[in-house]
């Protein structure tokens, strides 16, 4: 209880909240300038998300991969690295899940097949990210560069695998995947929205993130390496091993996002013309969530709500859905440029500080 | 004082930062042709004041007069225009450029569109003759000595027409010989009509060169005195606010068996340059061996080699008879070797960890802190509470980040952690760098206490006074070799200075 109070006593949550409000305001101003009605637009947005059980379920579906990739980017960040490659790791996870889900379909019962596909997807995503970790640890190559390059390798490698081994005759996609993560028992409640177990796994991943990083010996090492690799080395920690391990775990999160998408949502894997972009949205989510697992989950919920609801804006209020990108962009801008938010808050702020002193 | 208006007059300068008053209504006058020393502990407000004079900060209250006219200095260019020049502690030079290029940088003489290097070199030569500043106008900065780099900094200010020079801790990086040269240069400058403000906390230099001293403590002027009418003890007392003993109290050492032994240790840098060059020495239980030397002669590499952070190419390093060369840092640490690193921010602490987390930086993986992979926060916190109390680390709580502590308290935290490991060998690299007199006293006492408990202590320091006062034996390092071993009672600053500069070898090992 006292811990909860402590969280709310600090200002760490105020800045993002104010940033979100300011982001919406900027969006509203742009709409006004463009001759649209912001109130109608925003209410259409929220009506779209919360209006029907189906849409609500689909919004949750939209949030799930963002939770995973947000956690992936945040975890690497806490260990001192910038994982731009979550996108590629998602693709590798997808492909691994598809291969296992299709090729072992007859041989294994479903209750073995599905967990196996999920685990292998995570491990493959982890290994893929681990390549960048290894190159950084052993060769000193900046992970930003390697992860971006690996995104492209992942895109074409997974397309190659789908085309060569999994292709559905005459189509530009894989065969259907019999292994399913769908929560079919919720179909009646959510009107057949594509809900799947990935959401639960994402929430569990967030809990793991928190416990691992802040409660365990390995997490302590990883944070030390992230905050000051030199001091970590002087204190006898193996910096290289921690870099590789952190990238691996980050990649596992991203890989799981891929498993959720192919096993839970689409039930097949497309041949992608371009990168699907989950990983890049994950960077925004991680920043929005201040790289804290709880923050990342909340940020993914917000981001998913806005993205999914933006379609409603165009139907309901005739506002171009792209406008929501301005809102999201402004929110991230205000969070990154915290000085502006603090400046806005200044009058309140000083009062509070003074009270504290008294 | 003379009847003419002072060259600089600061009137009631006040500067506040969130939470502190860095300068509290400070007044100060600088007369023409005077060397005025500004003395104070770290954080006393000296640098803030000089940054105000140089236009980097704006005062909240008060005014500045230059030559009797009130001025507002809102950026460094304005300061330069007014004839103020600053010689920074950390040189601001472009390393691959030549001396001349650095001096004229930003104010190059031009011939059409081209830079007129001939006339630039000529001007540099003239300046160098006028003020007796020996520089080689065509040498590149990275090829010349630290002392010469400093002369380039001085010439940069002169080239820009400075009449008022501010020296910020100018002797911190110099050898004793270079310090003597700098003193001569400063005297020459004032003889040529310049005025100098000298920021320092070294009393010896103040006594030797300054005309007047202003002592600042906690942002306030304590006193301004004529140097001729004071003495180091009085100055120190005013600076710290209490009596200070300069002599370190210590009993004769009870020297035991050999603990650390290096034999012919050699190591190369990435570029293939030998940074340790067949280096040998020994530290015994119950003694403090001081390594004296000018920065960059292999001290850092020596520590890295012992603590496992650097691979050595040949030779042997033993602790209590066991070979530790090329073991991992953790293995070395488990041989009961403690290390107070040179750079406490970079190597000693994780600044964004709490004090409590920092206290277990090397032992977190051991029981009782680590239980089956999970950290036991209660035990870790209890441990931190104990150390904070025992070593008087001033922090609001153990949950505060190490970043929020003052330098002295950060160092205390590191020392607490390292001594708590109960080492047989304690390595202290520059343990008092940047600390004020009070904290220095504390650190040195702790080192001596460890030695009295029969620990072997290896002290690496660039401060000759520290080496002379604390060590039981002194080894001088020069270009990766030990060039001499002496006892502090048998030597003096001059002799050590010559050895540090590589022009004298003496004593100890026959094999050096």
Structure characterization notes:
The complex is a heterodimer of chains A (358) and B (512). Chain A has a domain of 209 residues. The longest helix of chain A is centred in the middle third of the chain and has 30 residues. Helices cover 76% and strands 0% of the residues of chain A. The C terminus of chain A is likely disordered. By secondary structure, chain B is α/β, with parallel strands linked by helices. Chain B contains 17 helices and 25 strands. In chain B, a hairpin with a 2-residue loop joins strand 1 and strand 2. The termini of chain B are far apart. The C terminus of chain B is likely disordered. The chains are: A mainly alpha (358), B alpha/beta (512). At the A-B interface, helix 9 and helix 10 of A face helix 10, helix 11 and strand 20 of B. Chain B: It is found in: Cell membrane. Chain B: GO terms for molecular function: ATP binding; ATP hydrolysis activity. Chain B: It is a peripheral membrane protein. Chain B: Belongs to the ABC transporter superfamily.
Features:
heterodimer, A: 358 residues, mainly alpha, globular, disordered C terminus, B: 512 residues, alpha/beta, Rossmann fold, 3 domains, six-stranded mixed sheet, 25 strands, 32% helix
């Amino acid at each position: 209880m006292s811990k909860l109070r402590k969280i709310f006593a600090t200002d760490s949550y105020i800045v993002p909240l104010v940033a979100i409000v300011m982001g919406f305001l900027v969006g509203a101003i742009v709409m006004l300038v463009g001759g649209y009605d912001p109130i109608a637009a925003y209410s259409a947005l929220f009506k779209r998300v919360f209006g029907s059980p189906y849409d609500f379920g689909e919004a949750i579906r939209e949030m799930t991969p963002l939770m995973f990739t947000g956690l992936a980017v945040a975890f690497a960040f806490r260990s001192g690295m910038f994982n731009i490659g979550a996108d590629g790791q998602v693709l590798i996870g997808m492909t691994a899940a598809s291969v296992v889900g299709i090729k072992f379909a007859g041989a294994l019962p479903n209750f073995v097949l599905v967990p196996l596909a999920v685990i292998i997807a995570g491990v493959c995503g982890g290994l893929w990210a681990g390549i960048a970790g290894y190159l950084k640890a052993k060769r000193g190559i900046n992970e930003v560069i390697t992860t971006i390059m690996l995104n492209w390798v992942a895109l074409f490698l997974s397309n190659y695998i789908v085309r060569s081994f999994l292709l559905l005759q005459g189509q530009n996609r894989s065969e259907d995947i019999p292994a399913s993560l769908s929560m079919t028992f919720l179909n009646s409640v959510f009107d057949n929205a594509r809900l799947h177990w990935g959401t639960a796994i994402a929430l569990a991943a967030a809990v793991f993130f928190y416990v691992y990083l802040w409660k365990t010996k390995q997490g302590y090492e990883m944070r030390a390496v992230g905050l000051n690799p030199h001091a970590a080395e002087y204190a006898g920690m193996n910096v290289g091993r921690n870099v590789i391990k952190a990238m691996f775990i980050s990649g596992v999160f991203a890989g799981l996002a891929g498993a959720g998408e192919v096993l839970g949502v689409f039930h097949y894997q497309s041949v992608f013309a371009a990168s699907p972009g989950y990983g890049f949205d994950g960077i925004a989510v991680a920043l929005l969530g201040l790289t804290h697992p709880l923050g990342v989950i909340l940020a993914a919920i917000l981001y998913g709500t806005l993205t999914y609801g933006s379609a409603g804006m165009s139907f309901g209020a005739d506002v171009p859905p792209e406008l929501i990108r301005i809102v999201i962009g402004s929110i991230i801008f205000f969070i990154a440029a915290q000085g502006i938010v603090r400046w806005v808050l200044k009058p309140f702020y000083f009062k509070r500080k003074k009270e504290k002193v008294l | 004082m003379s009847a003419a208006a002072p060259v600089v007059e600061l009137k009631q300068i006040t500067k506040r930062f969130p939470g502190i008053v860095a300068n509290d209504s400070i007044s100060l006058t600088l007369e023409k042709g005077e060397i005025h020393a500004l003395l104070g502990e770290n954080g006393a407000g000296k640098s803030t004041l000089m940054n105000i004079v140089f236009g980097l900060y704006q005062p909240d209250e008060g005014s500045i007069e230059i030559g009797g006219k009130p001025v507002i200095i809102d950026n460094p260019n304005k300061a330069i225009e007014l004839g103020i020049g600053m010689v920074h502690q950390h040189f601001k030079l472009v390393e691959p450029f030549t001396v001349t290029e650095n001096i004229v940088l930003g104010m190059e003489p031009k011939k059409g569109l081209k830079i007129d290097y001939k006339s630039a070199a000529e001007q540099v030569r003239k300046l160098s003759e006028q003020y007796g500043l020996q520089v080689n106008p065509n040498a590149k900065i990275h090829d010349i000595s630290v002392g010469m780099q400093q002369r380039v900094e001085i010439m940069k200010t002169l080239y820009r027409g400075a009449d008022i020079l501010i020296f910020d801790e100018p002797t911190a990086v110099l050898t004793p010989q270079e310090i003597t040269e700098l003193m001569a240069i400063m005297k020459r400058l004032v003889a040529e009509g310049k005025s100098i403000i000298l920021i320092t906390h070294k009393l010896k230099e103040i006594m030797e060169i300054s005309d007047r001293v202003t002592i600042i403590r906690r942002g306030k002027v304590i006193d301004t005195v004529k140097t001729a009418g004071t003495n180091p003890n009085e100055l120190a007392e005013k600076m710290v606010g209490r009596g200070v003993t300069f002599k370190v109290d210590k009993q004769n050492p009870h020297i035991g068996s050999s603990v650390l032994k290096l034999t012919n240790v050699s190591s190369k840098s990435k570029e293939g340059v030998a940074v340790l060059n067949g280096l040998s020495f020994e530290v015994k239980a119950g003694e403090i061996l001081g390594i004296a030397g000018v920065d960059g002669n292999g001290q850092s590499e020596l520590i890295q080699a012992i603590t496992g952070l650097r691979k050595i190419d040949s030779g042997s390093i033993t602790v209590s008879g066991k070979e530790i060369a090329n073991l991992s840092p953790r293995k070395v640490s488990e041989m009961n070797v403690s290390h107070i690193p040179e750079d406490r921010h970079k190597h000693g602490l994780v600044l964004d960890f709490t004090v409590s987390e920092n206290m277990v930086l090397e032992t977190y993986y051991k029981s009782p802190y680590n239980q089956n992979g999970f950290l036991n926060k209660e035990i870790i916190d209890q441990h931190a509470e104990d150390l904070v109390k025992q070593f008087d680390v001033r922090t609001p709580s153990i949950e505060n980040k190490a970043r929020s502590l003052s330098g002295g308290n950060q160092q205390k935290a590191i020392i607490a952690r390292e001594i708590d490991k109960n080492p047989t060998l304690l390595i202290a690299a520059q343990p008092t760098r940047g600390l004020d007199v009070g904290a220095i006293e504390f650190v040195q006492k702790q080192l001596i206490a460890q030695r009295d408990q029969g620990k072997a202590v290896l002290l690496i320091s660039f401060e000759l006074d520290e080496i002379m006062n604390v060590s039981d034996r002194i080894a001088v390092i020069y270009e990766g070799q030990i060039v001499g071993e002496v006892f502090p009672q048998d030597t003096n600053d001059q002799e050590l200075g010559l050895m540090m500069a590589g022009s004298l070898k003496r004593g100890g090992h026959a094999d050096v």
